[in-house]
Amino acid sequence: MTIDATYLLQLTLNGITLGLIYALVAVGLSLIFGVMEIINFAHGELLMLGAFAMAFALPVMGLLYWPALATAILATMMIGWVIYELLLVRLKPDEFERSILVNAGAVDHHHPRHAVRLQPPTPRLVDTQYGFEGVEIGAIRITWTRIIGAAASLAAFAGLYAVLRHTQFGRAMRAIAQNREAALMVGIRPRVVARNAVVLAAGLCGLAGAAISPIQLVTPYMGQFLLFKAFALIIIGGLGNIPGAIVAGIGLGLIENWIGGFFEIAWQEAAVFVIMIAVLFVRPDGLFKRGGMRVG
User: Fold this and answer.
1) Are 10 and 255 in contact (CB under 8 A)?
2) Angstrom distance (rounded) from CA 199 to CA 81
3) What is the DSSP annotation of 202-258?
4) Burial of 206: CB neighbours in 10 Å, binned 0-12, 13-18, 19+
5) What is the pTM of this model?
6) Which of 26, 67, 140, 238 could cross-link to 290 by cystine, CB 3.0-4.6 Å?
7) Spatial separation of the C-alpha atoms in residues 279 and 283, rounded to whole Å
8) Taking the alpha carbons of 160, 166, 170, 171 in that order, is the dihedral positive or negative?
9) DSSP codes joined into one string, the chain
């Protein structure tokens, strides 16, 4: 099989942009696990809601990308706050089995079938002010929506790093994740920290949904597929390890695009699970050290 260098570079650039969006979802999932020690199975629905919020906001705002993006993020953060206050607030770190049942209820409440009532299940591609315009360098072309999505993801990671490293808000999250008992002894309130983590993770998920909506088809079921990928990514990167989730997300985006460019499309969906199984055989705790909500 002859591999064209230009074609491979095009696949690589597309893979990086998609992988950064995957990483947003995985980081949000990892953030909640690091603080609350639960897996938020409603996370995929938050991504779907972010994508639909973007789809609804764009026509109202004259296809302006940035105001619609901000609206989608804020709307998803509000929904994340509601989910925490109604459901997740009752969970304790040692109630993993109960957390599965509560999360299952949250998933059922935000199930795609409810979204179908508001939006036809027909897949749709969201249009923005940028359309299909992009940057061309020789035979390489990348759309502005991909560039902006990647840049917004990098900005979100940088902002998250700054928050976790240099603010009292972030240090409280890290303290709870690394040693809950010691954090309680110095007066840190777990409920407030957990709520902030869920809202922040929901915002990352909303950004991911809004950024991916002009790139991939928006459907009521899109969040479920991406949730399984994100769950596999945080296992590959190491549960609670944020840099690991980012590296795994970018890696998956690259691998999926390379596979899609040279092999049958079905192998794209299987790739993340094959990689997860292989990693677990070699490193049961993931590629990076597990736990502690490590940021560097």
Assistant:
1) no
2) 5
3) HHHHHHHHHHHTTTS-B-TTHHHHHHHHHHHHHHHH-TTBHHHHHHHHHHHHHHHHH
4) buried
5) 0.85
6) 238
7) 6
8) positive
9) ----HHHHHHHHHHHHHHHHHHHHHHHHHHHHHHHH-S--TTHHHHHHHHHHHHHHHHHHTTT-HHHHHHHHHHHHHHHHHHHHHHTGGG--TT-HHHHHHHHHHHHHHT-HHHHHHHS-SS-B----TTTT-EEEETTEEEEHHHHHHHHHHHHHHHHHHHHHHHSHHHHHHHHHHH-HHHHHHTT--HHHHHHHHHHHHHHHHHHHHHHHTTTS-B-TTHHHHHHHHHHHHHHHH-TTBHHHHHHHHHHHHHHHHHHHHHS-THHHHHHHHHHHHHHHHH-TT-SS--STTB--
The pair of three-digit structure tokens given for residue 104, joined into one six-digit string? 């299952």
